[in-house]
Amino acid sequence: MADSPTSYARYSGTTMFPRSAADLRSTTHCPACFTALSSVVCGNCGLDLTHDAAAELALVSTDVAGLLDERTELIGRIRFESALAARQAAALADARAAAAPTAAAGPAPAPPVSPPATTTTTPPATTVAPGLSGGVGRPAAPAADAGPRRSSVQVALIIIGVSLVSIAAIYFLVYAFINYGLVWRSVIIGAITVTAFVVASLLRRRRLTSTAEGIGVFAVVLVYLDAFAIRANDLFGAGSADALVYWGSTLVISALGFAVWHRVSALRVGSVAAATAFAPGVGLLVAGIAEPLDGSTRLFTALLAVGAAGLVHPFVAPRSGTPTSLSVAERAIAATIGGGGLALAFLVGFQIAWVGEPRVSLELWAVAAVAAAHAVVVVRSDDASVVARVLTSFFSALGALALALAVVLLAFRTLTSAAAVLGVTVAPTVIVLVLVLLMLRATAPGARSAFRAAAYAAAAVAASMGLIAATHVVVNAVRAVTTAVESSAWSLDFRTLVADPHPDTVAAAGALALVLLLVAGFGRLTGTAARLRTPLVWGAVGLAVLLVPLLGSLGGVVVGWLAEAAVCVVALIWARRTARAADLPADTPVAPRLRLPLGVLAAAAVTLGYVLSWASLETWALGSIGTVVLLVAARWAVPDGLVAPRAALLATAVAVALGGAAAAGYQFGADPFVDRARAVAGLAIVLFGLSAVPLPGVLSALDRRSVFVLSTAAIVLAAPFSGTDTLLFGALVVAVFGWILQRGVDGFLLERRVAAFALAPAILWLLASVTSGLGRGSVAVELFPVVAALLAASVSLAIAARTGSRLRVAGDAGVALVAASAVLSSVLLGETAWLVLLLAAVTALLSAVSPEGLFAAKSRRKHLGWVSLVLATLALWWRLDETSVTAVEAYALPLAGALLAVAALDWRARRGNETPVLVFAALLVAVVPVALSTAGYAPADGDRIARAVLVGAVAAALLLVGSVARTAAWARPYLDASAIAGFAGVVIVAVGQCLWASPADATADVWLAAALLVLVVAAYGQCSGRPGDRSFTPRAGGAIAIAALTIVAGVEATLLDPSPLGFARTLVTVTLFSAVHVGGQLANRLPFDRLAGWVALASATILAVVAMATGSVDDVEWVSVPIAVSLLVAGGARLAREPGLRSSPALGGGLLVLFLPSLIESSDGSPVWRLVAIGVLAVAAVVIGLLRRLQAPFVVGGVVAVVHGLTTFAPQILAVYSSTEWWVWAGAGGIVVLVLGARYERSLRTAKNVVASIGNLR
């Protein structure tokens, strides 16, 4: 220090110069040598940071860093503003050179080079002027001319301050109006307004731009308040003037004045206000002058005037010497207001033209003219900015839209009905084509954009009119289809008129055809026919489909669509044969572009004809047969290489044939329902069998698969309803065997598997028909499904011996389906369910057998033996239930014994890893059901308590033996199984006994304590192994400990109530869990490690919440203080262990738990002891934080002290605020905010220093 009598600089020792400001702000590096700190004494230079002057050193370092940042900011400002001035001069020179009549020959001069960007060793303060990395003389990038960016926070502060001061000024004016006379009112208003303008201009000259702009906004607000006051006080007769004329004149005059003010002061707020007020002022002025006109015309005239006034937008220029890019906002505002007014004028004008009497829509023509003027002005301004392009597109589109609608209304009102349909469809199309032609002929980019936008807008009208015309034709076609579809099948005569075309419909069809011709001619004229060919062809296809319903009668429409499809199919076949005759590839048609449209037309026509044919008895056969013939014939039009389309056509023909078979069976059969199903099933079985026959050259593999899929689906849907025809189902079984027994058809493996799957259902249907014919008894009827499954399983096993195992899985799936349905039906409806379950178990066992046997087999098929065991167990339980056996042991112990037997046999056969799992399952089956039977909500009785004690003792023995015993490694899994089963039994018995115990006595606590003791002993037993002992399982012990804590917390939460015993339970449990948390964090040894400690803390927190909710404790401190103390003790231990740890993660949670609950409780009235305790503890935390240099106690204690003080003295603060008018506080606050905004950078630097000082604390 300069004024110190003794200089200590010579004792500084190792002192390195900082590399950047970040080194000065860092709290993890030594401030002398900048080496990373591992303790409070630097290990490199030995600087002791526990000295009293260390805090002062940190503050000085932070101040120096701030000064370095400010120095770098000043250097950056000098470079930026110098480069910006050079850039603006270059842009002005380029603009003048572009305005010259001729351009000088030779290469253009190189743009001036910008000064180098600031580079410094202080990364946070590095300043690079935006946009200066490229050439500085390119006016085509106006976005780079922007000045230095202001902080968004500073701008927000200025906006808020101006808003508050404006509100206060408004209310002050109202106050002045009420309390002062006319002279003083005028003096006050004028003085405030003039002062605002003067202050804003002076601030702008002093380069306080943001603050000046904010005061300028306030001045603009005052101008219009003055205008309101002039009219309210009737100065100069303003009160008697027309309101619209007065305010319109005010807006226009003020806009001109604001523009002059902008030129003089260079404040942007002036130009923005002028651009905003001018067009609305003109509109209001015109509305006031046009008062004699009717309401709609007056509104239209005013809006049109707003749109016309918006023509000033290209002429909105900034102050001389500034780039034109700075006027983008003003131009956008003026254009937006003008465009909005013109758009509203268009809507009002359209409404007037729609309901008005004149035949010529002058309003729309006027809108079109003004919009065209806007577009011409923008295009001629040679402005290539984004705003100019948007304005060009908007005004061009609006003008074209108005013009197109005017022409449409003219045609609609002057022509007859049919001619009007023709005119309103064709006229907009002509306008679109003319605009597109002009766009293609235009050379200037702006003109091309204008014509393009206009063409799009007119195209929208043309599309709407075309859609209306198409709607007439489509509605006629839809009427024909819906008339036939909505009628019941075969209910109409083929001479019935399904459509009655109106002359308007014919005119609409003619208009659409004429539009297609016009577009085609336009394509030939402009050379764009290739691009228009595709939409024209598809439009012709659609029109061809829609013209057929004009024939009227049902028969004519059906024949017409079928004939249209036939013509298309013949044309496609002819095209393919022509290609073959010309030695072209087989898949090359003569007209490639017409193949797809002709195919789509044929598909649509044949579909519609087929659908409509079902409406008449005379036409359905023709439609079905004709459709099948056309689909089969269409295969000849498809090249041989396109296998998928040919298969799709064949599949569709098969589906149509199946539908025809169903109709024939329904029409000609004795029993319509059964005969229809029998006809479909018969044809499907024939097709199913034929698909198994190879026919090379006729049917491809995909064709056979398609027929297979469709016939299979038809069999599944129709066979169950086709009666008891034994011959039919016998044929089905033969067809299935035909697919299964094929050889050398590996390509059809999936189909053969499906056939194998269908074998069991086919045998089921065959046995059902046989038993129905023989009249067997009820027992046979119940047993034949499972017998069918058994036979299918046997056949599947025999076939697997011949064809391999590839089909057996599918066959087993069919067997499973049939067996499952048999079991389900017998369980729900039968009387011999146990016998069916037993036969199903035999079936499952038969499916589980493989050549290697059962237990020694490597195939996964052996696992079906478990299904057999389950079914056999169900059969046993079913029989026991029928004989009224209720003892749980009779149900559980036989199954456990069976599992142990299986485990023994498996161990004998393979000695595999599955044996311990089986033993574990057996123990669970033996323990868990019996343990569950001891739980309940009935009153306690000696027998049940004795059973509970016995089962609990057995489970505890299993758990302790499995946890404590030490044995060979091969037996360890069996001990683990014993421990897990015993754990489940102990938990179930203890929890079950606690659930029905009354909270008023300690019975539940005794059971819970016993279970906790056993679990803790088991946990320590799991963790008591020695190194090298393979039975050492510490993680299991930790899991048991966590489970014990969770169980105790959950059970205790259900027992809490507002009684002394509930209070004792809460206090003991929360304290115990908090102690477990401390022990786990300090010792970190299994089973109670840190994870268990956090689980204990979470459990204590949940119990605390439940205790407060149930009323077990009255004061929150009984549960919050133990938890907070445990967190603080554990956090303090972490701080001692880890020198680099900050105090927030270590102590923050404990401090919050200590203060927040009590602080919340004190918000609605609390005893004095709580208020005093909160204050004392908060101050103590702040003092400890300062003394120990700990951040968390200092911050949390300070915040709590402030909040506690505010909540305590809130009534007194509210009284002071209510004693003064609110707008006075608003004005004062606005002034404060404005001052903060003006001094934002310095205030921010001060705040950063304070935050950095707090951040230096640990």
From TrEMBL:
Membrane-crossing residue ranges in chain numbering: 155-178, 184-203, 215-232, 244-262, 269-290, 296-316, 328-354, 360-379, 391-412, 418-441, 453-475, 505-523, 535-552, 596-614, 620-638, 647-668, 680-699, 727-742, 754-771, 783-801, 813-829, 835-857, 864-880, 886-905, 917-939, 945-965, 977-998, 1004-1023, 1035-1056, 1062-1079, 1091-1112, 1166-1187, 1194-1216, 1222-1240
Location of region: Disordered: 103-146
Keyword Metal-binding: no
Annotated Low complexity bias: 116-131
Superkingdom to which the source organism belongs: Bacteria
InterPro entries: SCO7613_C
Record keywords, A-Z: Membrane, Transmembrane, Transmembrane helix
The keyword Transmembrane helix is assigned to this record: yes
NCBIfam families assigned: SCO7613_CTERM (NF047321)
Protein name per Swiss-Prot or TrEMBL: DUF2157 domain-containing protein
The organism of origin for this protein: Conyzicola nivalis
